[in-house]
């Protein structure tokens, strides 16, 4: 049997700031070539019986090179590694400088993510255990390090999924079936992407002073006329040198700097607010000329010295000033925001789900090329570096938990629920300071028509809103509008439907009628904005036909045109049905092998190698047009209404006559469409 997982989690979920260098902090990245072996014993437990963490991994048997970060599955030519299920062992060695060995420094070990279950030993001593891929975990390793010497780091990861993991899965044993090899088993799951495994994100060491900034929580309010904003903050400081002693009085100073580094305002204390007059708001692409504006919140923490405060720790956090609200529609900074986005995956050739800057930057360049303003982190939290880029590039994120494939009643039990609540805690704690994140998605396509789903999702959605009252929460639904039991608890209805593909395959002629009916039903039923979160069709690059047939590039183009006509009829008017559309998927991606998948899922508008299929150009035309249209609308509004219409003559005088005419015409039609 695959080893049962019984563990105590030793890591801190309250406060997991991204490791940043500063005058008080150093970061050492342990990425690179590690040593690796899988435990192929039938119980996958030899590593534990023989205590592999106590010596060099090479002494336990044959080891191979393995890059970190990367999924291990596609690195070798060995099918048994590609399809391995169970414990895989990693090891690296590193040097810990003597300079870190002093009375005032703590050293932290942080794993960006490891899929699915991870156990960590440093110099033979267990320091961490963590359940769940996609989220970071860390601990203070100061007492386990050999300073001025080499250290051995061993990490074992297990990709086994059970009905109570997120995502869930199952191991099927074929014991007693004489026509299968002895001990044969398979791992099955109900989600549609390959269960890549390994150490997926960088492993880092970083130092902090003993008295350190543990957590920073920020949010902002903006006045209706955008003339002023308030940034709220809360800083938690911990002092490991004083555990069990009377706590010292801390001194916390918070300085807000603009993007040039100029000081906007400052204050002090562990929590409070900072006023910003004439703030530069954070806007997504398409809503303003100034996209993704970020301030830096510089937090200084220290003790109150006898004559002056003694600063020990400094952390710089990028923040954006913006609000997200939901009434009849989704609004950013009080203005309607229409989502034109993509569903994505962290999925690339060779490295699988392993973080890779080249692939990440390429994907952002493609999002820009497309004109998209958003994506969903389908179906799990993405790397923190990706979230940072979204902030900077003005890409809105719907941030999703790894709760995908919850298709049976045994997924909606207390064991899963308690893990789900933990995951939401870890996700919200990690991502709540990102202005790009506008909504939490607690799951994708659970069987929300099953009776236990109602209370289950009410509980997890409430938890997300309790942890973060500043953002709406949802889950992505594919149950029927007449059978779903959980959408009453969401703030925005997010639905998946593949009209022309899973529904009415081959029949693009029914798309407009059926899709319009479907989306309108959802809107009427819940009286909440609706985002069509997944739609699309398989298109194998290089397959062509006219008239179009399923799986050709032309077919996806036809499916798109029908969807666009429907979306346009539903996204306008005084009470629009639709608040957004997201094509599934940005790029082809790897899945489990199945008769319904031809070398993975081919619904990408880009190939897995990030080359455009012809549908990419169709969607680009639409997204760019919508993006430019909304820039023009919003800019006109800001220029003219925001600057008190014609009162600001200096501003008007600087315009060419042609621009003035253009602005006046646009303003006129904007006012008519918006207010009359
Ligand atoms: C869905 C799922 C997504 C799949 C997609 C498909 O509804 O949410 O994970 O990949 O359909 O292509 O079947």
Structure description:
α8 runs parallel beside α9. The protein is α/β, with parallel strands linked by helices and 676 residues long. The strands form seven sheets. Strands 23-24-25-26-27-28-29-30 form an eight-stranded parallel barrel, surrounded by five helices. The chain has a six-stranded antiparallel sheet with strand order 3-2-4-9-6-7, with no helix packed on it. Strands 1-12-5-8 form a four-stranded antiparallel sheet, with no helix packed on it. The chain is globular. Helix content is 22%, strand content 29%. It folds into three domains: 26-159 and 195-208, Sandwich (Jelly Rolls); 210-322, Immunoglobulins (Immunoglobulin-like); 325-633, TIM Barrel (Alpha-Beta Barrel). It binds (2S,3S,4S,5R)-3,4,5-trihydroxy-6-oxo-oxane-2-carboxylic acid (GCB). (2S,3S,4S,5R)-3,4,5-trihydroxy-6-oxo-oxane-2-carboxylic acid binds next to loops.
CATH superfamily of the largest domain: Glycosidases
Count structural domains.
Answer: 3
Estimated structural class: alpha/beta
Q: Which percent band covers the strand fraction?
A: 25-35%
Bound molecules: (2S,3S,4S,5R)-3,4,5-trihydroxy-6-oxo-oxane-2-carboxylic acid
> In total, how many beta strands?
30
Distance between the termini: 68 Å
- Strand order, main sheet: write it out: 23-24-25-26-27-28-29-30
CATH top level assignment of the largest domain: Alpha Beta
Architecture of the largest domain in CATH? Alpha-Beta Barrel
Q: Indicate the percent of residues in helices.
A: 10-25%
CATH topology of the largest domain: TIM Barrel
What coarse outline follows from CA principal-axis ratios?
globular
User: How would you sum up the major sheet?
Assistant: 8 strands, parallel, barrel
Assembly state: single chain
Radius of gyration: 26 Å
Low-confidence stretches: 1-14, 642-650, 672-676
Q: What value does the average pLDDT take?
A: 92
Number of helices: 11
Family: Belongs to the glycosyl hydrolase 2 family.
Protein name: Beta-glucuronidase
Domain Glycoside hydrolase family 2 catalytic: 327-626
GO biological process, one term: carbohydrate metabolic process
């Amino acid at each position: 049997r695959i080893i049962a997982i019984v563990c105590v989690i030793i890591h801190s979920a309250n406060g997991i700031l991204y490791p940043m260098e500063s005058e008080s902090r150093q970061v050492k990245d342990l990425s690179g070539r590690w040593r690796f072996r899988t435990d192929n014993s039938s119980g996958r437990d030899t590593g534990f019986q023989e205590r592999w963490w106590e010596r060099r991994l090479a002494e336990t048997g044959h080891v191979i090179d393995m890059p970190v970060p990367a999924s291990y599955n596609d690195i070798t030519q060995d099918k048994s590694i590609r399809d391995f299920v169970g414990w895989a062992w990693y090891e690296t060695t590193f040097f810990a400088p003597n300079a870190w060995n002093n009375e005032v420094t703590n050293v932290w070990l942080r794993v960006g993510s490891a899929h699915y279950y991870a156990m960590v030993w440093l110099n033979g001593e267990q320091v961490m255990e963590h359940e769940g891929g996609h989220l970071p975990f860390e601990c203070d390793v100061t007492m386990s390090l050999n300073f001025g010497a080499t250290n051995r780091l061993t990490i074992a990861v297990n990709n086994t999924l059970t009905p109570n993991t997120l995502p869930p899965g199952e191991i099927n044993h074929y014991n007693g079936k004489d026509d299968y090899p002895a001990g044969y088993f398979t791992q099955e799951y109900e989600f549609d992407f390959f269960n890549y495994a390994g150490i997926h994100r960088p492993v880092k060491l970083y130092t902090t002073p003993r008295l350190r900034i543990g957590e920073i929580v920020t949010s902002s309010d903006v006045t209706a006329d955008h003339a002023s904003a308030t940034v709220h903050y809360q800083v938690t400081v911990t002092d490991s040198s004083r555990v069990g002693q009377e706590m010292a009085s801390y001194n916390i100073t918070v300085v807000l700097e603009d993007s040039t580094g100029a000081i906007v305002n400052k204050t002090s204390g562990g929590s409070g607010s900072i006023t910003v007059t004439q703030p530069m708001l954070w806007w997504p692409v398409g809503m303003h000329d100034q996209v993704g504006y970020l301030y830096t919140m510089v937090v200084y923490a220290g003790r109150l010295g006898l004559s002056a405060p003694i600063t020990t720790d400094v952390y710089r956090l990028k923040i954006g000033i913006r609000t997200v609200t939901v009434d009849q529609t989704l609004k950013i900074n009080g203005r309607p925001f229409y989502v034109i986005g993509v569903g994505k995956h962290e999925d690339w050739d060779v490295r699988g789900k392993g973080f890779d800057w080249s692939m990440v930057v390429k994907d952002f360049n493609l999002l820009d090329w497309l004109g998209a303003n958003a994506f969903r982190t389908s179906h799990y939290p993405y790397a923190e570096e990706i979230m940072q880029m979204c902030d900077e590039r003005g890409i809105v994120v719907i941030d999703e938990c790894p709760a995908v494939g919850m298709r049976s009643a045994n997924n909606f039990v207390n064991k899963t629920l308690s893990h789900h609540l933990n995951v939401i805690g870890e996700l919200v704690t990690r991502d709540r300071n990102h202005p790009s994140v506008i909504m939490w998605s607690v799951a994708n396509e659970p069987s929300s028509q099953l009776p236990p789903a109602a209370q289950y999702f009410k509980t997890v959605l409430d938890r997300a809103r309790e942890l973060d009252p500043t953002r709406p929460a949802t889950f992505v639904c594919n149950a029927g509008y007449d059978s779903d039991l959980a959408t009453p608890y969401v703030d925005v209805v997010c639905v998946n439907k593949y009209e022309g593909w899973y529904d009415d395959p081959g029949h693009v002629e029914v798309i407009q009628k059926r899709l319009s009916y479907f989306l309108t039903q959802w809107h009427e039923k819940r009286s909440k904005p609706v985002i069509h979160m997944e739609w699309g069709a398989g298109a194998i690059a290089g397959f062509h036909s006219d008239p179009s047939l399923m799986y050709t590039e032309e077919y996806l183009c036809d499916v798109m045109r029908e969807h666009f006509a429907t979306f346009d009829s539903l996204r306008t008017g005084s009470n629009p049905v639709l608040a957004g559309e997201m094509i599934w998927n940005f790029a082809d991606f790897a899945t489990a092998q199945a008769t319904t998948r031809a070398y993975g899922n081919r619904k990408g508008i880009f190939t897995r190698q990030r080359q455009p299929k012809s549908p990419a150009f169709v969607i680009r035309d639409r997204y760019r047009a919508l993006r430019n249209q909304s820039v023009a609308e919003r800019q006109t509004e800001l220029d003219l209404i925001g600057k008190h219409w014609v009162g600001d003559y200096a501003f008007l005088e600087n315009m060419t006559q042609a621009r003035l005419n253009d602005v006046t015409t646009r303003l006129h039609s904007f006012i008519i469409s918006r207010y009359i």
